[in-house]
Amino acid sequence: MRLGLALGYWGRGPSPGHVPLAQAAERLGYDSVWTAESWGSDAFTPLTWIAAHTSRIRLGTAVAQMAARSPTTTAMHALTLDHLSGGRMMLGLGLSGPQVVEGWYGRPFPASPLTATREYVDVLRQVLRREAPVELAGRFHPHPYRGPDATGLGKPLKPITHPLRPDLPVLLGAEGPKNVAQTTRIADGWLPLYWSPTRPEVYGPALADLPEGFLVAPMAQVRVCDDVAEGLLPVKTMLGFYIGGMGHAARNFHADLMARMGYEEQARRIQRLFLEGRRQEAVLAVPDAFADEISLVGPRERIAERLESWRKGPVTDLLALAPDPHTLRVLAELNSR
């Protein structure tokens, strides 16, 4: 199992520690470093900055929002950074939910998310292969655009710049069983949001027969500490925000996933508390057991024991949301045993 460093997205501003952490991860033998975006910092600019200050570690987005860019624009970002980094780019994509897509990006949430995702990846692949001008008679991502308000002057194009790698890895963030199943067919890897080594059945039968070389790269908060309950608080804070605030009360994919993992009553309570403005109560309502099973928190010996269950399943890459160089080093030492 390879290790990656997940840096997420910025809060109020850039973290001065991200580049040093990425450099430390590279020295420790980590395979990859990942950035994200929601409705603040973008994913590609920080990754480019990190690329300029590292030399070997692979660079991934986990995730870049599909609604933020047309598929050709995303392909341009990816092929540009792949050239500048010497072939280190991995493109992780996510569809997000209606609240973000319509509220922030000002676009309609697709009526058929599976079809929209499939078309998006199809266009990306065409750009990266550069075998012919991009053409797709798609419902959501037609190329050229021939809608009722089109000029009729658009024509199929292929990128001026020759991509460095036609097989640049494309990974998808997927939560529902049908979405995960499609991901195994159209992508090179999957980025689970919550991964529990003891509950692979939550994602359906799609994981039973994965293609050769397919990446399964979940993110998990990792923290070496003496007090497990205290170490779980950042995990619970993240879960409270995602389950309570990253979606509408009637449509929240993160809350639905928690429900499928056996915590339906707790998920709905967290949603209710968060939407009522009782955010601290929502965080405290996150069960320690749920936060614990999707993270690696506690003393070194406890993390070492729990790490074995992550290695035994389909996970190929553990993307650690790790807060400090000490935790990064301990995780690297334990994973090299």
From TrEMBL:
Keywords, A to Z, come to: Oxidoreductase
Q: Name one GO molecular function term.
A: oxidoreductase activity, acting on paired donors, with incorporation or reduction of molecular oxygen
Q: Which InterPro entries match?
A: F420-G6PD/mer, F420_OxRdatse_Rv3520c_pred, Luciferase-like_dom, Luciferase-like_sf
Species annotation: Streptomyces qaidamensis
Q: Which CDD domains match?
A: Tetrahydromethanopterin_reductase
Q: Which residues form a coiled coil?
A: none
Domain Luciferase-like positions: 18-316
Please state what the protein is called.
LLM class F420-dependent oxidoreductase
